[in-house]
Design brief:
The complex is a heterodimer of chains A (387) and B (344).
Chain A lengths: L14 E16 L5 E17 L3 E5 L6 H8 L7 E6 L2 E2 L5 H8 L2 E4 L13 H11 L5 H14 L16 H13 L5 E5 L7 H18 L2 E5 L3 H7 L2 E6 L2 E7 H6 L4 H9 L5 H6 L30 H5 L5 E2 L6 H11 L18 E2 L11 H15 L1
Chain B lengths: L1 H22 L4 H10 L2 H18 L1 H8 L37 H37 L1 H16 L2 H12 L3 H27 L3 H8 L4 H37 L11 H8 L7 H29 L1 H34 L1
Classes of the chains: A alpha/beta (387), B mainly alpha (344).
């Protein structure tokens, strides 16, 4: 990857979050009495991204791709192994807990499971009032008033202040989680699969609430999901993760319309289509095998053992995130850069995921119109040679 | 028709009202109390414990009513012509007298004061200690956990009777030493349970949520984790009280606890073991009180556990379901046999 622009520029103001080469390894311990490290889980491996103010960056990828770990690194919940996470220009990776505290107000999280993310033994009023209590911003009657305002804002009955989480439905519980995240008026809310535990009908309600709140408060979202349609609906930019790395990133429509990484293509082809005609017409790309172990990720491109287009180089040289060199759509890049009023020199430009450019880490990007489903058979022999 | 309709409507209205009242937020404690109230054994145990506490508190009242202070011997009224204890109901001694002619009933009540005091207070201290140590070990993990958990294990591995005897010999038997020992040997079990629970609770998302809000470790431990531990700790505490009572009685029985003439169930039993051939009541009644008290605490603890654990209810329901299915199967088999005989 091209070295990132560290010096602040005029466009730095547009960047709320900047992650530079974040790495998170979890040690694998073995031994009964004397523990020693026998390996590392490469949960997040050299990931860089930016999140613009007031925008949503969607993060997709299958289970175990490191989405949630990355989110927790951005939230400062787990320390990164190396790399930097800048929030509003401050590197949070080296801050003590005390110094981190004011920044906690800027970044909040909404969790996946509305059942385990609310303490079953505490009343809703206490749960939503916690941020005020921890940051000592409101006490007594004022806190109660603020909590009830929040409850009303997210569509809960403020009179239910004294109820326990168990007395609410899944959707209502997720609203409680939203209210809690909103309490300190953060700039960034990390949504870790906020709707995947909910009914489809409830999902829409919560997503609409999130987008209303974004407009009202100018929030930025880091939106993690494995439901591609949900991500498309809410995101301005989308990054696709596979085995701890970002394989492809682009503005949402661009990514969905012109996916270039074979993994993205496969992922998109696996998404259920509502229209039966569309469903019948599309060509599913069935990936063979499982996700390789993140303890010992494949050399070269991490996707190569399952990639229908894999060739010898894929197993040896790791592809970098680059813009489309073939310039299949010459107008697009220039057009978007002009729209955003940005240049390569700005941190929003370059090849950072979350910026305006469409970047892909693949030696042989998929070109529009290419049929990957048939490519699999051709490349199959080559793949065997590689392995 | 209209009658049934009216009845139906009344029924519906009734049900509507019920559901309205049912929606009113019922807390965990209200639910527990409701379940506990329907548990007859637990309620009887609770009544017995309350009665025992009242009796212990008003023991001096009985002493003044009977006119027999606990440590006063009555060589004339309290002993028969050969100097042996006299039986229950004789000469106004409700449960007879002991070897020196003291009132067994009054002494049992005074003994109850010591037993309940030691049981409840030592257990309370042990619970506080165990919860704090278990929470810290479980939440912080790492080296803190290793040190505390190993210490807990070594306390649990201690041969407590030997230590108790050694301490009593070194420091001289006293109530403080007894309570110290009871506490010392009770907290470890609680700490271990609390640590285990903390380990599982701290991985919950709501703990992560609290951390993302900037809550400190102690706020998380005592405001977020502790409320989830109250149920097991309460059950455990209730079950530790009888252990403490028995431990005190054991030490006193061995002469290492409460010293005569102060009455305690343990030292009464020790003394009675020399006289049981001539005075069965002297051995029986203190033992009976000890048994009833510890049994009541144990049964109440079990009841609280069942009441707090909603799974118990499900277990009962599952058992009922199994029975119903077995009955249905039997009936089906019988019907088949009947059909066969008709056809045959």
């Amino acid at each position: 990857m091209a070295p990132l622009m560290a010096q602040p520029t005029a466009n730095e103001d547009d960047v709320l979050v900047r992650v530079e080469n974040a790495v998170k390894y979890f040690p694998v311990k073995a031994g009964g009495f004397i523990k020693h490290t026998v390996g590392q889980v490469h949960a997040v491996d050299d990931v860089s991204l930016v999140i613009e103010r007031g925008k949503t960056l969607g993060l997709v990828g299958e289970t175990g791709s490191g989405k949630s770990t990355l989110a927790r690194c951005v939230a400062g919940l787990i320390p990164v192994t190396s790399g930097q996470v800048f929030i509003n220009g401050t590197d949070i990776t080296k801050l003590s807990r005390g110094a981190m505290r004011p920044l906690r107000r800027e970044v909040q999280m909404i969790f996946q499971d509305p059942y385990s993310s609310l303490n079953p033994r505490r009343r809703v009023g206490a749960i939503i009032g916690d941020p005020f209590a921890i940051h000592k911003t409101a006490t007594g009657a004022e806190r109660k008033r603020k909590v009830q305002e929040l409850m009303e804002r997210v569509g809960l009955n403020p009179e239910h202040y004294n109820r326990f989480p168990a007395e609410f439905s899944g959707g209502q519980r997720q609203r409680i989680g939203v209210a809690r995240a909103l309490a300190l008026r953060p700039k960034l809310i990390i949504c870790d699969e906020p709707v995947s535990a909910l009914d489809v009908s409830i999902q829409a309600q919560v997503l609409n609430l999130l987008s209303d709140l974004q407009q009202e408060y100018g929030l930025s979202y880091l939106f993690i999901a494995h439901d591609l349609e949900v991500v498309r609906h809410v995101s301005d930019k989308v990054a696709v993760m596979y085995l701890g790395r970002i394989g492809e990133a682009a503005p949402a429509e661009e990514l969905y319309d012109r996916p270039r990484h074979p993994y993205t293509v496969a992922l998109l082809s696996a998404a259920p289509a509502a229209d039966p005609d569309t469903a019948a017409a599309r060509q599913r790309i069935i990936l063979t095998g499982d996700v390789p172990s993140p303890i010992d990720p494949p050399a070269g491109c991490r996707f190569h053992p399952r990639c229908p287009k894999a060739q010898e180089i894929c197993a040896k040289v790791e592809p970098q995130l680059v813009r489309d060199q073939s310039a299949a759509q010459p107008g697009d890049d220039g057009q978007q850069a002009a729209d955003a009023g940005q240049t390569d020199a700005s941190p929003m430009g370059g090849d950072v995921p979350g910026g305006w450019a469409h970047v892909t880490a693949c030696h042989f990007p998929v070109v529009p119109g290419e049929n990957l489903a048939t490519a699999g058979a051709v490349a199959g022999a080559g793949k065997g040679d590689v392995a | 028709m209209s009658v049934t309709e009216a009845a139906f409507e009344a029924n519906e209205a009734q049900r509507g009202q019920d559901s309205v009242t049912r929606v009113e937020g019922r807390t965990q404690w209200q639910l527990t109390w409701r379940r506990l109230r329907s548990d007859r054994v637990a309620m009887i145990s609770l009544a017995v414990i309350i009665l025992m506490v009242i009796l212990a508190i008003i023991a001096p009242v009985f002493a003044s009513i009977t006119g027999h202070p606990p440590n006063t011997a009555y060589p004339i009224q309290g002993e028969n012509e050969v100097g042996n204890p006299i039986g229950p109901g004789v000469n106004g001694f409700l449960l007879g007298t002991d070897s020196t002619g003291r009132d067994v009933f009054v002494r049992i009540l005074y003994g109850a004061r010591i037993s309940l005091f030691v049981g409840v207070v030592s257990t309370a201290i042990a619970v506080v200690l165990g919860v704090v140590i278990g929470l810290i070990a479980g939440y912080f993990g790492g080296i803190v956990d290793t040190v505390l958990a190993r210490f807990t294990d070594s306390v649990l591995a201690f041969p407590y009777v030997i230590l108790a005897i050694a301490l009593a010999v070194v420091f001289g038997p006293s109530l403080t030493i007894i309570m110290f020992m009871v506490t010392f040997f009770s907290w470890a079990g609680i700490a271990r349970i609390v640590r285990g629970q903390t380990l599982s609770i701290k991985e919950k998302e709501y703990i992560e949520a609290a951390r993302s809000l900037g809550a400190g470790p102690f706020r998380i431990m005592f405001l977020d984790i502790l409320p989830n531990l109250i149920a097991p700790v309460l059950v455990l505490g209730t079950l530790y009280i009888p252990n403490a009572i028995v431990f005190e009685a054991t030490l006193s029985f061995l002469g290492l606890g409460v010293q005569p003439p102060t009455a305690s169930w343990g030292n009464m039993l020790a003394d009675a073991s020399n006289f049981y051939q001539v005075a069965w009541w002297y051995l029986l009644f203190p033992a009976l009180f000890l048994l009833i008290t510890t049994l009541a605490f144990n049964l109440l603890g079990d009841g609280i556990r069942d009441a707090m654990d909603p799974r118990t209810e499900r277990l009962i329901a599952a058992r009922r379901m199994r029975k119903r299915r077995a009955r249905a199967r039997k009936q089906a088999a019988a019907a088949e046999v009947a059909a066969d005989t008709v056809n045959g």
